[in-house]
């Protein structure tokens, strides 16, 4: 059997569903008797994103105060919203009031029996309009709310997220094809009930389902695969350069991050955004002139809303009197002496996890602090990005010093081992 057609000789989908509905369906709901267009419309709007049990007391209070379109249209919006309070999604309450005014003014207080006209009312989409007309007037219109999408996607094994136009179009076509010729009000309630009570999102009760015989997902043992989930949005990707500035006395430069933005207020290695000149950044922000020595393999860090690729750039401080003369101790910078015993001190500074991870790998410093977040950093590579053999670190571990702040500056030029890689 194809995904869209019932097998020949099968009892129609609608017949089986209606037979089940007659025994198990919800046919005592307050908007079902009397089943006026006003009451059906009110219930359909209230039921958007809200469960039946929650809606019932609100519905009863609402119809007791506003029994028809005209009384609701004449009401003050504040009173409408006060009665709506607690149902959430307050735009629905405002739309309800606006729609009642349209019905009162355009249709003399009577719901039009016309799909386009109903769909044009504030807060009423295609499926809601169809449900209103089917239940209020027995009109032959298909619905496709969230529950029905799930039922049909499983029953016909329709792959793809129903939020995409192509999949939705297919589901609408199936929903229309399955419609019976009679009992449209009951059928509409029945297929909604099936989705709400048996074909539920997490625990479908297929063994009790009236349409299980030809449910493709069930027969294939693939119910959990349908409907396909909404595709996760790819996180934006950013690149930056992590600046490891070393002086000749075994210290590295840390800066305090601005209070807002990533790692707000934390101490970190300086970070140059993509396209930003590391040389200029260090000179202007820290009064340091550098000689780039080596580019190390990039690693990634996942933030909630984006991924950051950090490429470490090892730099040495240049002996430059003009610049050195400008260098003073600044509250947003510190020089940290690295040693083999620096782990806890490094962790105590509160460095961002990926920066701490990078430093602990770079200097083989064990640390008990977490060094990665959602995306584990790759193991440190000792090869430079150019594939050349790595240069020896210019920072010599000093057994006498721990990770304490230092104001020392190198006035020595970098040694001959520097690779001279400049940031792009
Ligand atoms: S058999 Fe299971 S998956 Fe298929 S429609 Fe029924 S409840 Fe849903």
Explain briefly what this protein structure is.
By secondary structure, the protein is of the alpha+beta class. The chain has helices at residues 13-24, 37-47, 52-65, 69-74, 77-84, 90-106, 115-119, 126-137, 146-155, 165-177, 184-198, 216-219, 278-286, 321-324, 343-349, 353-362; strands spanning 237-246, 251-256, 267-268, 271-273, 290-295, 299-302, 307-317, 333-337, 405-406.
Walkthrough of the structure:
The protein has 424 residues and is of the alpha+beta class. The protein has 2 domains: 13-225, Orthogonal Bundle (Endonuclease III, domain 1), CATH 1.10.340; 239-258 and 266-320 and 332-376, Nucleoside Triphosphate Pyrophosphohydrolase (Alpha-Beta Complex), CATH 3.90.79.10. The protein is 37% helix and 12% strand. The chain contains 16 helices and 9 strands. The chain has helices at residues 13-24, 37-47, 52-65, 69-74, 77-84, 90-106, 115-119, 126-137, 146-155, 165-177, 184-198, 216-219, 278-286, 321-324, 343-349, 353-362, and strands at residues 237-246, 251-256, 267-268, 271-273, 290-295, 299-302, 307-317, 333-337, 405-406. Strands 1, 4, 5, 6 and 7 form a 5-stranded mixed sheet that branches. A 4-stranded antiparallel sheet has the order 3-2-8-9, with no helix packed on it. Helix 5 (77-84) crosses helix 6 and helix 8 crosses helix 11 (184-198). The longest helix is centred in the first third of the chain and has 17 residues, at 90-106. The protein is elongated and about 90 Å long. The two termini are 60 Å apart. It binds iron/sulfur cluster. Iron/sulfur cluster (SF4) is lined by residues 151, 154-155, 198-199, 204, 206, 209, 211-212, 215, 217-218, 223. Iron/sulfur cluster (SF4) binds at residues 151, 154-155, 198-199, 204, 206, 209, 211-212, 215, 217-218, 223.
